[in-house]
Amino acid sequence: MSDYEFDLFVIGAGSGGVRAARFSAGFGASVAVAEDLHMGGTCVNVGCIPKKLFVYAAHYHEDFDDAAGFGWTVGPRAHNWRTLVDNKDKEISRLNGIYQRLLENSGCTVINGRATVIDAHTVAVGDKTYTAERILVAAGSWPTDQSYEGGEHVITSNEAFYLDEMPKRVVIEGGGYIAVEFAGIFNGLGAEVTLVYRGAMFMRGFDDDIREHLAKEMEAQGINLKFHTVFDKVEKTDDGYRVHFTDGVVIDTDCVMSAIGRRPKVTGLGLEAAGVELKENGAIVVDDHFQTSVPSIYAIGDIIDRFQLTPVALAEGTALAKTLYNDTPTTVNYENIPTAVFSQPPIGTVGLTEDEARAEYGDVSVFKSSFRALKNTLSGRAEQTLMKMIVDKKSDRVVGVHMVGPDSGEIIQGIGIALKAGATKAVFDSTIGIHPTSAEEFVTMREPVAEAAE
Predict the structure, then answer these.
(1) What is the pLDDT of residues 130-166, one digit of tens each?
(2) Is 435 a residue of the active site?
(3) What is the topology classification, in CATH, of domain 151-260?
(4) Which CATH class is domain 6-143+263-325?
(5) Catalytic position from the list 213, 244, 402, 435
(6) Per the confidence metrics, is the pTM higher than 0.70?
(7) Cβ contacts of 23 within 8 Å, gap of 6 or more
């Protein structure tokens, strides 16, 4: 008989924690899961799911405009923010219930409350303590705080999903995917949007052509992009807020949103006292099997800050359960992870950027295509789709594929399989396209971009 109440105690019922708990229980382990907020974690409650629903809502204004070119007459239209929020809340509540039932039906014990690690085998929730042979920390991440004066007036993505009213003017601080996604959402729903980023170009880490193309398209939609601009302070006014920048520029607005990144949610977990090693940014240090510096404590998901993506957390949770309770040591391969950004237009990307490919392989071929999608020939919309492929000349292997345009996430998912399989450019060239689609462009690119003379 075990000396502990549980084989595994999971802190956090987000995507990674739930996956690890369910699979571990399925392999015969006794599992407890503690959650202090809502089932499903960031993705279900204040991340992927509600964000995608809001993106759908924001895109209707383009669909209404485009309809005229196809013979449709669209009458007077108006958007009801409250209806969107209420319907979103109903769907999230439904998903919360599904996650609860998934855990209970798999045999897990669900505990409501904030868990704290006491020592290598003990967890406290409220005034009760529990013992476990192993502890898994999957508490996720949290929006980064604002350090300037007036930060208390600023919302984050957490609050953006629950605003009482749709703001007419919005200033968004940040240059990552959350910032550009919400800029598109608010703009699509009718707000006057200013996106502010301290760097020269947003979406750092993405391919430069993709970044620049998205910036042009967002500006064409009427979003005001301010680069090389830094927040100084935010003050409350009689009719909203006033944002001051370090260059002396001032903007009056109804809503100020900060999207400057997310940090591992480790505060108050008791990890340092328990001897768990943390990185400078708070991320938990783990090995390839997600074991921390304390052998009985493990961590996965956003809190280890490798890739803050739901499918990655799911893969990590699966690998951990197989390793610990199915006698199948499993690691996660982080190469060629397909990613979508639900900006407007959206980004899809997998593999290396052009700069990364040149640094790793030296001699590469670059294929690019920019075109107006077939739908836009009748809608009259000027929006351009951009596709880019990067090939290692020596092996002919495709090492990076990037896209900005409608359905890019759906298209890149399939391309991701090809890159995982090691597809060469010759394989792409020999694949027959589906016509007429944008996706076929990836199998009809024949001429590489001319290389600059040395």
Answers:
(1) 999 999 999 999 999 888 999 999 999 999 999 999 9
(2) yes
(3) FAD/NAD(P)-binding domain (3.50.50)
(4) alpha beta
(5) 435
(6) yes
(7) 317, 318, 321, 322, 325, 326
